[in-house]
Amino acid sequence: MAMSDSAMLNAGERLALQCAVVKGGLPLFVSWSKDGQVIAPTTATTTTSVRLVNEFTATLTIESLTGQHGGWYVCRKYIISVTIVQ
């Protein structure tokens, strides 16, 4: 789905959304959020998970949709910047 797309989904269905960065160099980080709250791979629940496929791709999976899963989901790319001071 494109960023502006919406879809009608049914309770109990599985949903998997994949976010892939097509431009930009390393190092970078891809993350998913729902209603402004980051869904980190380490804070995933039994029904919602984020899997980092590689440096450029992250997949959000919801095993069984319920009304609680309604909301605004956003995938973001963060460029990691490191400065070494000597």
Automatic annotation (TrEMBL):
PROSITE patterns assigned to the protein according to its UniProt record, in alphabetical order: IG_LIKE
Segments passing through the bilayer: none
Annotated ranges, domain Ig-like: 1-76
One Pfam family linked to the record: Ig_3
The protein, known as: Ig-like domain-containing protein
Source species: Daphnia magna
